[in-house]
Description:
Blueprint: E1 2-19, E2 25-45, E3 49-54, H1 66-78, E4 84-90, H2 101-116, H3 123-133, E5 146-150, E6 154-157, E7 165-170, H4 177-182, H5 195-199, H6 211-214, E8 216-217, H7 220-226, H8 229-239, E9 244-247, E10 254-258, H9 261-273, E11 278-282, E12 284-285
Amino acid sequence: MIRILAPAKINLSLQVLGLRPDGYHEIRSIVQKISLFDRITLEEETQPGIRLVCDQPDIPAGPGNLAYRAASLLMETAGVRGKGISIILEKHVPHGAGLGGGSSDAAAVLLGLSELLGLSPHPGLLHEIALRIGSDVPLFLGPSPSSIEGRGDLVKPSLLRLPAFYLVVFPGFPVSTQWAYTNFRLTKKTRKYTISSQKKVDGGGISPDRWQDLLVNDLETVVSGRHPEIARCREDLVRFGARASLMSGSGSAVFGLFENPDTAQRARKGILSEGWPFAALAEPVFS
């Protein structure tokens, strides 16, 4: 039996640079894993095949689940036949929130199942399998924080260190990643801080009064245009003491950065009192 934690991620920055010939979007992003985890238990079974059980009935339990697909592709690629595997998935990361929950689950299964079955796949092979599952999956095999480029396949360590506490708020509705990118239109707007300048940051030398300048998400405008709750949620976070706030990925989750845990805890109570259905405190995961 293997038990593994699958962390959520937030995008400290997300720039959409254009449409690639393969139909995917070219992106640049700084991604931070955080201590909001799904919990996965992997175990061998006597009956051949893959059995996935999730504590949330609206989550697919078959090939439509990225964790299931990860197990299937790994076993197929490694030539594992006649084995039975059970995947018990305990969800804590909201689905459709731009926090990478499903992608993280898939990466965790790739790593955990390799250990359970005694496989020793080359990291490059795991990366290749991860990319076949989804563009966000490779980043969860990499370090944290990471600099992400290409369609998500180019993952490098980032020197950026923000000594912040995170309050992650889920407004209660999912956003389709495909919809967000399809409705995005490139503009010529520039930001004070670009990804290239972020790569040069060493030792987290950014004061809290500059955190908001650092954060950028090109998809936020299109998503908040359809869902004004995004902007209201950001405003509430700042009102309750966040030094910076942003939508993560393609949404709908919004996060706030806080200097200390006491302020973040009071903000969580305030956020919940405003009627937002989900608010979780988290810290950055560095690896």
